[in-house]
């Protein structure tokens, strides 16, 4: 409630508005801006940070929200020294339970030196462990009410006018509790006219029962002072003339009459709308605005509560097992970017509805991030029960979902942490274990994976590899291997693909499938990618010079989405090509479909600049995700790589052959050359050649190999392709092949 070091209105507003706003949310923020006070969210404690301050602070105190929150000493300097004691009490959360309120009044000095009274009304919020963590409240300027109450006791006519124009209801009662004054705001709030109410007892009209008994006890017994305290404000329920109740803020002041009798002045503010807004603000702190699910903080808090309940049940031997599920949406970002935010929201709501419909009624549902959800199922006796729940959920999530003119299938990976009756894991361990199982499900291609102890070892390995990867390039642990691809027209080696490899001193050869993902997630893909680009261009430029037969050998390098959107790739390409002497048209950048949909406008512009350098562009893994004909037309690509998943299924059915043939025909129609990857069998090579594919790559011809062993591998691969073409009755040295690869 006091002396909070803030971060600023804009930051928190941006955090609340990171998700595209609905019309309802816009109304909500508009209402916040119209509240006649300073709304705030702040950490508990005298030195706690302000996390949100509404812009009204500028009108009331003279500082902008940004200025007010940027200076950690400003509040303390603005607070009147005589009010430090009041604020010290308000700052302490030790006497207030989460969900409780604290209301006090104190003076603040404005920017231009004026002293103003403020009423501070705050609600205490708890963190994920149930400890007092945040104050959510409002500062209201009550200077005029203070002055009016003082002047009214002296029969000040000017104070009378202020009272009548005040926005708060004002009521004065005599020593017997009869109403002796009633302003216009009171008429509006409570429905009683001044003429009808004067002379009636307060306890018979608007006063709640608890306050009536306190008043009837008599001021001489100190009941009212004990209940309210000097300068204290209470929230109570009041009654309108029609019998309906409303929440009000009540401030009570004793003002003796001319004979020295005890009179009381009351200010009452209708806080119905503010309570509604404050409830919305609190919901924003703990709820996902799109789905209404709990957010991560609330989920962890409720999970902690559940663990506490189970501990008590364990003593009574009535505890049962439960399960924590983490559900990750595969490829959600490409869907979001390619289809737009409205379609992405529709997909998320579909997932939310299916989670709600196909998990037990008592489950707690949460949205942890853009593409991750969590489920706490509190009653799951055994692993078989958890398996049944997750199998049904996985089946329902896989069902197609309509999104605009397009049908989408939700691809989800579910990680499960089952906790049997004797389990004593912490909140952090349960969340980490379920997340690790979800990652394992994603990597293995399974829909559901249960946490196993071995995953902890895998997580430890992952953390150590992440740390080691930061220095892998400078320690010469990263090297480049080359896998050639061969023309199906003349059997010649037309190029090589440069592949990053990592030889770790302790773990040995680390799989690219493992470390490339880590490099992407940590940002180390930038340094790894630049190293591969520079080394491969240098190697192939030298090979072209030293081996006349392969003077036109091309080089392909994979480029990640992160490299492409970074903005430095064009300059890096220009520098490397100039330093190594490799012609731009000898280089092909292979782009995944994910990279193409990352940021279409920026990507298209950057690819056009790269293509202008003579560098070729290829779409890798075509057909496996979300790319479409539109992408092939929109971006300046000239090569399409047929994914190994299509190649592997060629022998299974005529349908797979027709599908692969359709992709190759599409490429030819658009003037694109095609390279099939992952070829391991002669039969697949013959099929692809017969379907019109331009080139092939795979273990059938050559495995990835170091540069010094590349020359004999190229010769052996050419012989293998040539023999296959002859055996299948196809001619070699086909017309136009040289022109095709010279483009």
From TrEMBL:
Residues 47-100, 155-203 form the PAS domain. SMART domains: EAL (SM00052), GGDEF (SM00267), PAC (SM00086), PAS (SM00091). Residues 462-718 form the EAL domain. Gene3D superfamilies: 3.30.70.270, EAL domain, PAS domain. CDD domains: EAL (cd01948), GGDEF (cd01949), PAS (cd00130). PROSITE patterns: EAL, GGDEF, PAC, PAS. Residues 320-454 form the GGDEF domain. Residues 102-154, 232-283 form the PAC domain. This is Diguanylate cyclase/phosphodiesterase (GGDEF & EAL domains) with PAS/PAC sensor(S). It comes from uncultured Nocardioidaceae bacterium. The lineage of its organism: Bacteria, Bacillati, Actinomycetota, Actinomycetes, Propionibacteriales.
């Amino acid at each position: 409630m006091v002396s909070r070091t803030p971060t600023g209105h804009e930051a928190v507003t941006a955090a609340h508005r990171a998700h595209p706003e609905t019309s309802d949310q816009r109304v909500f923020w508009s209402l916040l801006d119209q509240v006649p006070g300073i709304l705030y969210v702040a950490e508990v404690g005298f030195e706690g940070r302000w996390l949100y301050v509404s812009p009204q602070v500028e009108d009331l105190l003279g500082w902008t929200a940004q200025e007010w929150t940027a200076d950690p000493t400003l509040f303390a300097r603005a607070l009147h020294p005589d009010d430090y004691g009041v604020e010290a009490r308000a700052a302490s959360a030790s006497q207030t339970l989460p969900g409780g309120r604290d209301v006090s009044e104190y003076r603040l000095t404005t920017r231009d030196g004026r002293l103003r009274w403020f009423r501070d009304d705050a609600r205490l919020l708890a963190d994920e462990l149930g400890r007092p963590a945040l104050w959510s409240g409002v500062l209201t300027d009550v200077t005029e009410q203070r002055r009016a109450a003082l002047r009214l006791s002296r029969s000040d006519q000017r104070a009378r006018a202020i009272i009548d124009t005040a926005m708060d209801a004002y009521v004065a009662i005599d020593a017997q509790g009869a109403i002796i004054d009633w302003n216009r705001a009171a008429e509006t709030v409570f429905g009683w006219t001044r003429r009808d109410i004067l002379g009636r007892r307060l306890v018979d009209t608007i006063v709640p029962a608890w306050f009536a008994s306190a008043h009837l006890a008599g001021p001489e017994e100190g009941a009212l002072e004990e209940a309210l305290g000097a300068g204290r404000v209470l929230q109570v329920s009041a009654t309108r003339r029609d019998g309906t109740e409303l929440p009000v803020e009540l401030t009570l002041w004793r003002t003796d009459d001319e004979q020295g009798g005890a009179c009381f002045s009351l200010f009452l503010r209708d806080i119905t709308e503010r309570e509604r807004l404050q409830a919305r603000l609190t919901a924003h702190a703990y709820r996902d605005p799109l789905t209404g699910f709990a957010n991560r903080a609330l989920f962890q808090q409720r999970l902690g509560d559940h663990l506490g309940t189970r501990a008590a049940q364990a003593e009574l031997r009535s505890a049962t097992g439960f399960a924590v599920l983490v559900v990750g949406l595969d490829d959600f970002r490409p869907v979001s970017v390619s289809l737009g935010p409205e379609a992405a929201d529709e997909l998320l709501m579909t997932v939310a509805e299916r989670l709600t419909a196909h998990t037990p009624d008592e489950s707690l549902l949460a949205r942890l991030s853009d593409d991750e959800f969590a489920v706490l199922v509190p009653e799951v006796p055994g692993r078989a029960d958890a398996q049944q729940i997750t199998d049904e959920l996985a089946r329902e999530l896989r069902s197609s979902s309509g999104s605009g003119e397009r049908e989408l299938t939700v691809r989800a990976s579910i990680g499960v942490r089952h906790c049997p009756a004797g389990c004593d894991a912490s909140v952090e361990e349960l969340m980490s274990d379920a997340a690790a199982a979800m990652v394992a499900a994603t990597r293995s291609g399974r829909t559901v994976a249960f946490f196993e102890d071995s995953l902890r070892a895998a997580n430890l390995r992952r953390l150590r590899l992440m740390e080691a990867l930061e220095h892998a390039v400078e320690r010469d642990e990263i090297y480049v291997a080359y896998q050639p691809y061969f023309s199906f027209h003349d059997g010649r080696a037309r190029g090589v693909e440069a592949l990053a490899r990592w030889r770790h001193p302790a773990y040995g050869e680390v799989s690219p499938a493992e470390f490339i993902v880590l490099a992407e997630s940590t940002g180390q893909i930038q340094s790894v990618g630049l190293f591969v680009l520079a080394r491969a261009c240098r190697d192939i430029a030298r090979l072209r010079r030293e081996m006349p037969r392969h003077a036109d050998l091309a080089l392909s390098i994979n480029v990640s989405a992160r490299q492409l959107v970074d903005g430095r790739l064009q300059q890096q390409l220009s520098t490397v090509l100039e330093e190594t002497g490799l012609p731009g048209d000898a280089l092909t950048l292979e782009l995944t479909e994910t990279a193409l949909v990352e940021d279409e406008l920026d990507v298209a512009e950057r690819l056009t600049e790269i293509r202008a350098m003579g560098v070729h562009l290829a779409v890798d893994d075509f057909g496996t995700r979300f790319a479409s004909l539109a992408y092939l037309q929109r971006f300046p690509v000239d090569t399409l790589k047929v994914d190994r998943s299509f190649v592997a299924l060629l022998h299974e059915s005529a349908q797979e052959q027709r599908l692969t043939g359709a992709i190759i025909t599409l490429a030819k129609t658009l003037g694109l050359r095609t390279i099939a990857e992952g070829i391991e069998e002669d039969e697949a090579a013959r099929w692809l050649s017969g379907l019109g594919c331009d080139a092939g790559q795979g273990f059938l011809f050559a495995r990835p190999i170091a540069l010094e062993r590349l020359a004999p591998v190229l010769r052996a691969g050419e012989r293998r392709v040539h023999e296959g073409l002859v055996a299948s009755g196809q001619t070699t040295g086909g017309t136009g092949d040289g022109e095709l690869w010279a483009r």
